[in-house]
Design goal:
alpha/beta; Rossmann fold; seven-stranded mixed beta sheet; 9 helices
Length: 213
């Protein structure tokens, strides 16, 4: 795991504050629009019997939905112990405990310990990591067939919003920072690994993409 003062450790503490709120929000409202787009894009790739790796899995609902859709098993990685507590509880309540494996820590650090997967999911994760190239590159190494992600669109509103969020985090002395990485770079890294883009959809904030090979 990363050291206690690393950006990933700060992100883990930040998202631990949101764990119960995130779980309650999902149980009340279900996936948001960009997440529904992501799920639709993944389902179109015929994932019956597939293994799933979700990086930044939070409380686990996306990969658990894919398990209910017919995926065979899922590994969830997250920086927040409290998020993973909620994910394990949801899996138990849904009878999915035997199909799930949860790992605490920075995926880039843990990657060598993790098995490859047919489907890799990064929902709103790239924007939480300072070294996007390392995160995308290492996650592509673990992906056999389907690579699905959502991340912020690079327009002015998102850049202003990110700057405001960073200022607010500085005020509360939290060292976690959000990022708006260049989609052209992300797409180039993915295509360079032999994937082709199958799905691209947007909301005002988010860009959703699904790649296959």
């Amino acid at each position: 795991m990363a050291c206690c003062n690393s950006p990933s450790s700060e992100a883990g503490r930040f998202f631990s504050w949101l764990a119960r709120l995130s779980c309650r929000h999902y149980q009340k409202k279900g996936p948001g629009k960009s997440q529904r787009q992501l799920l639709e894009g993944i389902r179109a790739q015929h994932i019956g019997g597939a293994s799933v790796l979700e990086i930044g899995c939070g409380v686990g609902y996306l990969h658990q939905i894919l398990l209910n859709d017919g995926a065979a098993g899922a590994t969830g990685v997250d920086l927040s112990a409290r998020m993973l507590e909620q994910a394990r509880a949801l899996a138990r309540n849904r009878g999915l405990e035997s199909k799930t494996d949860y790992r605490l820590g920075d995926f880039v650090v843990l990657a060598d310990e993790l098995p490859p997967a047919d489907v890799t999911v990064l929902d709103k994760v790239v924007c939480c990591y300072p070294d996007a190239q390392a995160l995308v590159g290492r996650s592509l190494e673990k992906t056999r067939r389907v690579y699905a992600l959502t991340y912020p669109r690079p327009h002015l509103f998102n850049r202003i919003l990110t700057a405001v969020e960073a200022a607010a985090l500085r005020l509360i002395r939290c060292h976690f920072r959000p990022y708006v990485h260049d989609p052209a770079d992300i797409e180039r890294w993915i295509l360079g690994r032999g994937f082709r883009k199958q799905v691209q959809r947007t909301t005002w904030i988010w860009l959703t993409q699904v790649y296959v090979r």
